[in-house]
Amino acid sequence: MKIAVLSESPADEAAVSILIEGLLDFSVQWDDFPEPPTRGCNGVFKAIEPTLRHLHYRTDVEALVVTLDSDESPLHRREHVEAGSCDTKCRLCRLRAKIEAVQAKLRPRQGRGPIRIGLGIAVPAIEAWCLFDTDSRISESAWIQALQSRRFPFTKKSLKQTLYGSIDSTLALETKRLVEQAQRLVKEKQLSLLERLFPVGFGILADEVRSWRS
Ligand SMILES: [Zn+2]
After folding, report:
1. Residue 212 has what DSSP assignment?
2. Cα(166) to centroid(ligand 1), Å
3. Predicted pLDDT of residue 85
4. What are the residues whose beta carbons fall under 8 Å from the beta carbon of 139, sequence distance 6 or more?
5. In this predicted structure, what is the pLDDT of residue 83?
6. pTM, two decimal places
7. Cα(22) to centroid of ligand 1, in Å?
């Protein structure tokens, strides 16, 4: 299966690719697309249309995974979908709406269905997925409580400090550390625990990716 990953940085994409492969029981071919002009959350939103168009018309990619950090945005809730209207600040709903709008404009591909989409939101950041099993304070529920109480047992900055030794590291170091941790999680079979402790941001992505097995 050929899959592409779009995220806030190439370091995030490298780590997410390893986690996706850990969820699937077959080998994955990874596909590239033109580098987005800007990165970060806004860069990803801007890159969705050109990236999807490129993958749809110029490649035989079957699935695209998009992940973002939540930062302090409200976490996705099932009611967002059930009510039929998305929360304007929920990044998962914003991603889904943007992708559906772009896909609605694409012509069908000869002999192939639309690209399948997996969406993940790392709460509050990808470093939490990579460090959660080394610090029992790190989970989605802890972050939701922290947002409500405004008392934060960990922050995006503290996670970066722990993983990289500084909050302003290089892309090379971030890639190395995130990849090491993602490989460790897969090797130590921690993905089901990751899913339990991050049921929305990782769990929804994991459910979707596993549906690609059949
Ligand atoms: Zn939502």
Report:
1. G
2. 32
3. 65
4. 132, 197, 198
5. 64
6. 0.95
7. 26
